[in-house]
Amino acid sequence: MPDDPQLGGSADRPLRIVIGCDTFGPDVNGAAKFAERLAAGMVERGHEVHVVAPGAENGPNVVRTEVHEGQAMTVHRLRSWRWRPHPWLRYALPWRIEQNAAHVLDTVKPDVVHFQSHIVVGRGLARQAVARGIRLIGTNHFMPDNAMQFTPFIGPLREPVIRALWRAAGRTFGLAAEVTTPTLKAAQYLERYTELDKVHAISCGLHVDHYTADLTPRAENVVLFLGRVEAEKHIDELLRAVALLDPALTTRVVIIGDGEQRGALEKLARDLGLADRVLFAGYTTDEYLREQLTRASVFAMPSRAELQSIATMEAMASGLPVVGANAMALPHLIHDGENGFLYEPGDIQGFADRLTQVLTMPHDERVALQRDSLRIVGGHDIRRTLDTFEALYRGRPVSDPVVDTGVIGVVERDVDPAG
């Protein structure tokens, strides 16, 4: 396929890119983090990037320069309202999105629009981009099942609402020239429920060289979880599994992140007799996060609805063995018996057994798991992701990257057991 004529037919010409998001920094979630890294990566490559996202306060639309992932970019913040059932999520006003999207596109005159969700911002930008003949790319991070906990739709209403959400997704993503999602499993899922075809599986990617692996023996057993502290993550299974471990292992749990389930999980930890061994660290600095990733013994991810799990990739880039649920896209990252172990969702004893297996294995076997985490995550280096999206933006054919192989550098360092 030749270059899209509207993009000038030159791989060297910088592009003007609009990235539309329903969630963006300072929000803390996988979709927001991907959008930040994508926008920053494109700025670093010399492109002009405009992000359209909900504002953080009840005020008028504003356009301002913001710094994300160390790069300055133009962000169009739209007036938004808080989605009350959710602890922090805000949505741009849906009845004004067409007008707002039209204004942004007519002002910016982008070469390409890339929307990250079909809910509000993506829907408006998609329709207005098509009306103006602007190249349109869509990426899906949305799982209707995850959203249902923050709606009043329960019981017999649940399934019809989920089907309606998928139909809405199909209508908006059907407008795009190319559709992507982070993993093959997620692509198959999207194709199945929306009747789209040829959805690209393109990893969210991460800067694998920003993380440090420690291959030395551990002075203590620490199980780490990173992510939103919400019901969909099933963190209760982690606490219940740790409660079944041999007390002689003296295992601690560190939970980095926050959310509406924190209070309930703190109570569960007390009820299980784990209160003095579970640290709810909340949101932390990147430095603290990376330090904990390097120092931990094993990473745990009990979520059952991950379209990819950037948190798991961060753990792998830090050389951690991973124990996670055998669900959705996690098996793309956790290769059972290679870089960690899978357990069947809901099988608490099985979860505990897999954690015990990692915490008690000989050092050389543990190092083998660590090295395989590093090898597998090497295929998710964000430079490959940016290369692929840059090609899609220019209208060039792409092959979905193979993301289960690759090697990255290992930084082996001595760690003072005393901390």
Automatic annotation (TrEMBL):
<dbReference type="InterPro" id="IPR050194">
    <property type="entry name" value="Glycosyltransferase_grp1"/>
</dbReference>
<keyword id="KW-0808">Transferase</keyword>
<protein>
    <recommendedName>
        <fullName>D-inositol 3-phosphate glycosyltransferase</fullName>
    </recommendedName>
</protein>
<dbReference type="GO" id="GO:1901137">
    <property type="term" value="P:carbohydrate derivative biosynthetic process"/>
</dbReference>
<dbReference type="InterPro" id="IPR001296">
    <property type="entry name" value="Glyco_trans_1"/>
</dbReference>
<dbReference type="Pfam" id="PF13439">
    <property type="entry name" value="Glyco_transf_4"/>
</dbReference>
<dbReference type="Pfam" id="PF00534">
    <property type="entry name" value="Glycos_transf_1"/>
</dbReference>
<dbReference type="InterPro" id="IPR028098">
    <property type="entry name" value="Glyco_trans_4-like_N"/>
</dbReference>
<keyword id="KW-0328">Glycosyltransferase</keyword>
<feature type="domain" description="Glycosyltransferase subfamily 4-like N-terminal">
    <location>
        <begin position="28"/>
        <end position="209"/>
    </location>
</feature>
<feature type="domain" description="Glycosyl transferase family 1">
    <location>
        <begin position="219"/>
        <end position="366"/>
    </location>
</feature>
<dbReference type="GO" id="GO:0016758">
    <property type="term" value="F:hexosyltransferase activity"/>
</dbReference>
